[in-house]
Amino acid sequence: MPRVLAAIALVIICSACPASRADIAISEQIIQLGDGLNDLRQENAVLQQQVDSLSLVIAKQDTVLRQLANLAGIPLAR
């Protein structure tokens, strides 16, 4: 009976052991990969916002140029 209890205790202790170093390293790499992915998403959002802003500036400049050309009587090709 004591051997059975000792075997059960050994199984319980082994199942409660912390993860191995390899498991910990893989977990850290996955976390770093997720952090890197989030950084890329944020950078992509900033770049998209800059592109949208520049598109608005170009559209405004195009409108001003067309109005000036119209006032000067110069035809512009579209």
Number of domains: 1
Helix tally equals 2
Report the average pLDDT across residues: 88
Order of helices and strands: HH
Strand tally is 0
Poorly predicted runs = none
Shape: rod-shaped
* Helix coverage percent: over 70%
Computed CA radius of gyration, to the nearest angstrom:
33 Å
**Class by SSE composition:** mainly alpha
The proportion of residues in beta strands is under 5%
Biggest pleated sheet: none
What would your notes on this structure say?
The chain is mainly alpha-helical. The chain has one domain (2-72). It is built from two helices and no strands. The chain has helices spanning 2-15, 21-72. The longest helix is centred in the middle third of the chain and has 52 residues, at 21-72. It is rod-shaped and about 105 Å long.
Question: Quick summary of this structure?
Answer:
This protein has 78 residues and is mainly alpha-helical. 85% of the residues lie in helices and 0% in strands. The protein has one domain.
Provide the descriptors you would attach to this structure in a database record.
78 residues; rod-shaped; single chain; mainly alpha; 85% helix
